[in-house]
Backbone:
């Protein structure tokens, strides 16, 4: 478990429209992984943090209900492209989706430019933390 | 499988020209026939008799002659007229068109062409015999009988082609019907697939929350007992949502399978209100909403309905109102118009309201008003679909309107008044 006030806490933004799923991601990553999490679908707010280089990973749901960019709604795939384009440093994005079809996986990854794929449902926080850790470490190589 | 190419039916105009060429039917044949006409015309009534003695002889054809003697007499006249036309006819499009009607008429009434062909054979034999009687000399006999055979062949060909054409267009119509039915089937199937996908998604979502939050507690990731309690509350509410969905699904499938039976009886709305409103009052109080029962001062007439289902619909509409209202009130009222056969119930809230274009849709399965303001409000989108079916089964109607001051929504439904209360004094708000 991470120290409560560690200044080195890595920051993860969780973009997920199901409140309970988002809450689980957040609790698992904060308590089990020592990360600091922000749950939001507010695209300008996400961009602000990303552009300031404050974000270590974005956990993105594919189907979003209220994420909007430039006056229209965007899904996780589009949002991923927007974030990747504007991030000053390499930003790992983990795409979470319930579309548990093997054909979709490649399509989603390719069209979004995301770094990894998380198949929902996730019950085990250890699995989630491991996926996140691998992606963050991968970018530090 | 119909893989073999079906020849396209020919057009009557081109068909008759083709046949004339094929049968070597020349102007001389027309001349001979015109001369033959007066000689044979005396025999046309007998020819018609023979024809109509032949056709009803087949049981399969006889069932078509339902018009009795009158019909047969009329048909005999028509046949005689054809006979005259045969001898002094102009064998043109008009002639072909008329003969082309035969097949369509017969296919429509289900008369097989084989009966008509055999009766035409009788006609041919009869006319040839009469011709032989008229022309003892061999050369003449040959020339006249050849001309007669050609025109009868032409006629038979026209008739047979018309059966073919009629059968083809009948099949085409049938094919179109089948195509239409198969499209409808595919659409119904797509709706069912969508329904299943939606159901499995909706079942999994709360179940996944239950599992993941339970695991969170088991893994010791909650730091305080309060936090653990909060997570368990989420588990509990997910379980409730799941139970509600399962109940709703059972309801809707029972209703749609036509297996839901109602226990219709005379019900006192007062008793239903008194046992139902307190349940919703708890939800309302937790959101600081006022739940106002405007019927308290009223004498409510007795209605006809199923007690459990009446209560179910009422709870559904009331909890919807509470769920989608963040502050203000939820009002319940009952309206009995002076001569109405129904009692109208209204549940009005000061909440988000539903746009006009979405109102009818709200009674469809799994439709939620997914506006931004509503996100995070749990629901499965079956409640109104069930309520509509239940109310209609009880003989009432259900709908959504604007709230009185333009905002909020007003859900209403009606139930038939029990016979005993129609005569009693009607009650007004």
Residues:
């Amino acid at each position: 478990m991470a120290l409560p006030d560690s200044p080195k806490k890595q920051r993860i933004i969780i973009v997920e429209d199901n409140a309970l799923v988002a809450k689980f991601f957040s609790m698992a990553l904060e308590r089990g992984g020592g990360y600091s999490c922000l749950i939001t679908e507010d695209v300008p707010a996400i961009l602000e943090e990303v552009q300031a280089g404050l974000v270590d990973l974005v956990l993105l749901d594919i189907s979003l209900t209220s994420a909007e960019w430039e006056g229209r709604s965007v899904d996780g795939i589009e949002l991923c492209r927007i974030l990747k384009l504007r991030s000053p440093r390499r930003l790992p994005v983990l795409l979470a989706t319930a579309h548990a079809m093997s054909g979709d996986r490649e399509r989603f990854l390719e069209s979004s430019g995301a770094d990894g794929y998380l198949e929902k449902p996730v019950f085990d926080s250890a699995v989630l933390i491991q996926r996140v850790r691998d992606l963050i470490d991968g970018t530090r190589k | 499988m119909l893989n073999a190419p079906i020849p396209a039916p020919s057009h009557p105009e081109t068909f008759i020209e083709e046949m004339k060429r094929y049968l070597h039917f020349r102007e001389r044949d027309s001349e001979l026939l015109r001369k033959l006409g007066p000689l044979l015309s005396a025999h046309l009534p007998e020819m018609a008799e023979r024809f109509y003695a032949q056709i009803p002889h087949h049981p399969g054809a006889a069932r078509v002659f339902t018009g009795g003697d009158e019909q047969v007499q009329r048909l005999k006249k028509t046949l005689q007229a054809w006979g005259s036309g045969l001898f002094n006819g102009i064998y043109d499009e008009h002639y072909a068109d008329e003969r082309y009607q035969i097949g369509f008429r017969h296919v429509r009434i289900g008369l097989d062409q084989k009966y008509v062909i055999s009766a035409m054979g009788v006609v041919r034999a009869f006319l040839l015999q009469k011709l032989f009687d008229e022309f003892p000399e061999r050369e003449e006999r040959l020339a006249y009988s050849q001309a007669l055979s050609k025109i009868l062949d032409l006629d038979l060909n026209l008739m047979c082609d018309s059966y073919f054409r009629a059968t083809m267009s009948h099949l085409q119509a049938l094919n179109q019907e089948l195509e239409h039915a198969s499209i409808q089937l595919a659409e119904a199937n797509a709706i069912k697939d969508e329904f299943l996908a939606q159901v499995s998604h909706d079942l999994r979502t709360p179940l996944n929350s239950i599992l993941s939050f339970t695991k969170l507690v088991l893994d010791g990731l909650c730091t305080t007992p309060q936090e653990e309690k909060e997570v368990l509350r989420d588990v509990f509410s997910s379980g409730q949502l799941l139970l509600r969905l399962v109940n709703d699904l059972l309801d809707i499938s029972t209703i749609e399978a036509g297996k839901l039976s109602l226990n219709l009886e005379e019900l006192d709305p007062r008793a239903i209100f008194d046992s139902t409103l307190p349940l919703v009052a708890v939800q309302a109080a937790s959101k600081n909403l006022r739940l106002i029962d405007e019927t308290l001062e009223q004498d409510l007439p007795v209605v006809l309905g199923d007690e459990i289902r009446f209560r179910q619909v009422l709870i559904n509409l009331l909890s919807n109102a509470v769920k989608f209202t963040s502050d203000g009130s939820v009002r319940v009222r009952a309206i009995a118009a002076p001569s109405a056969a129904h009692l109208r119930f209204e549940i009005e809230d000061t909440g988000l309201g539903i746009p006009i274009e979405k109102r009818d849709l709200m009674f469809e399965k799994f439709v939620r008003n997914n506006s931004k303001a509503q996100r995070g409000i749990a629901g499965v989108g079956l409640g109104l679909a069930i309520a509509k079916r239940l109310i209609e089964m009880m003989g009432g109607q259900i709908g959504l309107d604007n709230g009185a001051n333009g905002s909020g929504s007003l859900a209403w439904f009606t139930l038939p008044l029990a016979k005993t209360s129609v005569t009693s004094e009607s009650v007004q708000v």
